[in-house]
Design brief:
heterodimer, A: 178 residues, alpha/beta, two-stranded parallel sheet, 25% helix, elongated, B: 390 residues, alpha+beta, Cytochrome-c3 Hydrogenase, chain B, three-stranded antiparallel β-sheet, 8 strands, 46% helix
Chain lengths: 178, 390
């Protein structure tokens, strides 16, 4: 398969205006990734899927990552037709609080459907263009996004307080917060 | 080089499920199949909307077995998560362990000694055999055979689980693979016992084949049901026997050649009709191919250590970086994506669950079929809830 540098040039030639940068991976496996700006992501993804030399028609894994300043979605792409891969593409949100939208790649690869729902559920990235974006693993009325590193469990979460000091102090603090 | 514009050869929405219209008017009957259901392979719910017997809409609901595995792993050391990987696809613990060990070995560049690679292949193929046998057994049980083929399969499975217990100390939750090899070595007596078990497996597969493959009820109930087109299967990320039953030649053992699989001579069966019967047949044929690999591996296994003596066990801190390691687990492509920040715990630990992603196309396969066939289609996907929900 082409190297990440060659793929970056191919993307920039095919999708004018796409901002692609290489993210090197220091580990021995050497699976470097390409960071793609969200604006042209669907066009870039369609190019990667349909290009004759890449034919990355199989999205193997879509992951969410919580970094200190933003959230990130990482996609691992393989080619079943040409038996090559992986190519890793990443997209970052602007911040973790209010600008958490990213374009959904479900119209390009259907396997992103459930995985993007899970990333929305557990990290809070809102995927625009997803056909059915709702929570996957947590239930409907659940608040907040559990996989974030600053997630605090609610105190009254099916919890029977016992007569321990620490628990009583927390319950008191929780009640005073309401 | 194709210029990327919005006009591709495929029409818009080609990979979405079709919108079914009910015949006539009147309300659709909405049934929740699950989570308490004898045939849903665990706690799993499908919200189906029915027009008489025909399925108009099917939405799966997940999360009943969500145990927060990924976040727990962020708080534990790398080795501490190994027993938790057993519990992902709880029928195939050894392949889960192997996938995780492979991902960590990719992250650190750790090498694995040859005897350990052979042991991994032997245990992996034994796991694949007992998984496919159980899966066929459960599928036939859901058809109404009330457990007899399942118990035949479980009888062979018990012999394999006895081998696992003798080697690893546990029948199912084995916690056996380590980063750089395996935990304990197999004695010559164990290898002889394994050879005896493997010698009895072809007779069992032949018996299952003779009893089931030309059975009238099986053929009538499964042929033509639950058809999955190959281009949709690839686009939806379906892997494993389900993908090969749709005629796509993609077996990660051949494509990636991880471990020492390129030393073994085995074939990859593919399906022509892409239906439930093909999935049953592919699993049966893969059981036969596993026996071939086992016979070769048990013959050629060399002497040597099973753990790299220079592998770091205490104070294991991989350098910052990330790695994605995947194997051909019995259910599909099981991958682990690890991001390390240089500390003893992973920064991000992600399991790529084959069962969850194979369920993406459940709706497509079940629309228009009778509700009685939904259980069979679902059984042919072969999922384990531990992996779907983690």
């Amino acid at each position: 398969m082409k190297t990440v540098e060659e793929i970056k040039l191919a993307i920039e030639a095919a999708v004018p205006g796409a901002a692609v940068e290489i993210v090197p991976n220091p580990s021995p496996g050497g699976q470097h990734s390409l960071r793609i700006a969200p604006g042209h992501a669907v066009a870039v993804a369609t190019f990667l899927r349909d290009d004759e030399e890449l034919k990355l028609d199989y999205l193997s894994n879509a992951t969410g990552v919580d970094w200190p300043g933003c959230l990130e979605a990482v996609y691992h792409l393989y080619s079943v037709a040409l038996k090559q891969g992986p190519l890793i593409i990443r997209m970052r949100t602007v911040n973790r609080t209010d600008q958490v939208e990213l374009p959904s790649l479900t119209p390009v690869w259907r396997s992103a459907e459930f995985q993007e729902r899970e990333i929305f559920d557990l990290f809070g990235i809102v995927f625009t263009g997803h056909p059915d974006l709702r929570r996957l693993l947590m239930w409907e009325g659940f608040k907040d996004h559990p996989m974030r590193r600053d997630y605090v469990e609610p105190d009254d979460f099916e919890y029977e307080p016992t007569a321990h000091d620490e628990v009583l102090a927390r319950a008191r603090e929780h009640r005073s917060r309401e | 080089m194709a210029v990327a514009d919005n006009k591709t050869e495929k029409p818009e929405g080609w990979n979405r499920p079709p919108v079914m219209e009910p015949d006539g008017d009147g309300e659709l009957l909405e049934v929740a199949m699950g989570p308490h259901h004898p045939s849903t392979h665990g706690v799993f719910r499908m919200d189906v909307a029915l027009d008489g017997e025909r399925v108009i809409r099917l939405k799966p609901v997940f999360g009943y077995l969500h145990r927060n595995h990924e976040k727990l792993a962020e708080g534990m050391s790398y080795l501490g998560s190994m027993p938790f990987t057993d519990r992902l696809d709880y029928i195939c613990s050894l392949t889960n362990n192997w996938a995780y060990a492979l991902a960590v070995e990719k992250l650190t560049g750790q090498e694995v000694p040859e005897r350990a690679e052979y042991l991994r292949v032997i245990l992996g193929e034994l796991t694949r055999f007992q998984n496919h046998a159980s899966s066929i057994g459960f599928l036939i049980q859901e058809m109404g055979a009330s457990g007899t083929p399942l118990m035949y399969a479980f009888r062979e499975r018990e012999k394999i689980l006895d081998l696992f217990e003798a080697l690893t100390g546990a029948r199912m939750m084995v916690n056996y693979m380590r980063f750089g090899g395996c935990r304990v070595d197999a004695s010559a007596a164990w290898l002889d016992a394994a050879r005896k078990v493997v010698a009895g497996l072809p007779a069992f597969t032949g018996e299952m084949d003779r009893l089931l493959s030309t059975n009238e009820i099986l053929m009538a109930r499964t042929q033509g049901i639950g058809v999955l087109r190959p281009e949709l299967a690839v686009n939806a990320g379906v892997t494993g026997p389900m993908l090969r039953a749709s005629g796509v030649n993609y077996d990660i053992r051949k494509v990636d050649g991880y471990g020492i699989y390129n030393r073994f001579n085995f074939r990859v069966p593919l399906g022509d009709h892409w239906d439930v019967y093909d999935r049953y047949m592919i699993r049966l044929l893969e059981m036969r191919e596993s026996i071939r690999i086992l016979e070769q591996a048990l013959k050629d296994i060399p002497a040597g250590p099973v753990m790299d003596p220079k592998a770091k066990l205490r104070g294991f801190r991989p350098k910052p970086g990330e790695a994605y390691g995947r194997i051909e687990a019995p259910k599909g492509e099981l991958g682990f994506y690890l991001i390390s920040d240089g500390g003893p715990n992973p920064y991000r630990y992600r399991v790529r669950p084959p069962s969850l992603i194979n369920l993406t196309v459940l709706e497509d396969m079940a629309l228009g079929e009778n509700v009685a066939d939904v259980v069979l289609i679902f059984g042919s996907v072969d999922i384990v809830l531990g992996e779907v929900d983690r």
